[in-house]
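FW: tagging you since you asked about this chain on Friday. Here's the raw sequence from the shared folder, copied in full. Didn't touch anything.
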Amino acid sequence: MHAAHSTLSVVVSVRKGSAHQTGSPRGSRVDRVVGAASIGTKMTTALPRVIPSLRPDGSGGGDDAGIYACLFDMDGTLCDTDPLHHEVFSNLLLAHGKNGGVPIDTDFFHEHIAGRTNEDIFADLWPELSVPEREAMWEKKEEDFRTLAASKLERLPGLTELLAWIDSRGVRKVAVTNAPRPNAELMLRALGLETYFEHVVIGTECARAKPCPDPYLEGMRLVGACDAGRCVAFEDSPAGATAAVAAGIPTVGVLTSQPASALEGVGVSMCVKNFADVGLMRALESAGSREDGGGA
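HL: got it, structure written out here
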């Protein structure tokens, strides 16, 4: 099995039982992180946040180290959707004579498309079109994606077991995505997860989408997670990982399409091939469970 990419000593503490709080008090860590996060630049020199009770020296995280909430990206994290997005975008670009009339390659997809919002993608690739024209084009693109996705999506290896592990410990769970809501709902139905997550946060429904931290901050607020250091995010793209790290959340990079260096460069705490990676479960299970603790 693929070994985890991490320089950290892997010791994690989790909590049992759920303290179902709502809202985040003014002046809490969530509010403070907004002002402190760096938004406008790529976080190439970010120091990775340690997963709760993960410390580089293996010392653990103290009495408040239990995991309170897990926040999951969707595209490329719950399931590998990149091949479908690649196919749909390649066909669309070919139909409009872009990229010299040849299919796009993986490098083009990662540079111009992966992890970005439709607004940004289409503004870059079709600057000559009006905003309404771009919107019509990306709505058609999303319809084509949903047609493909309805019958082709599968959970990443180990996801089912990880979600059961999270449930058995009462950890809160939120999906956080830049995908349009119809896409998010279709993906969850296709994966049999339509009722699993407590909340589904859509980046474009927030003040700012990923790579800004707003969607993750909103996900924390919805489950009353007042301390980002007691949350864990799972992301597969540099843009998404940048958002989670900027929100102060220790982040696991999932290597469905990006190299570990691309995610480590924006500050993820560790990288895994998928959720069946022995390094991930070793990290989560090594320190057992916690009975106490809430969002604060």
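FW: The beta strands are 14-15, 69-72, 172-177, 199-202, 231-235, 251-254, 270-272, 289-290.
HL: agreed, and The chain has eleven helices and eight strands.
FW: great, closing this out.
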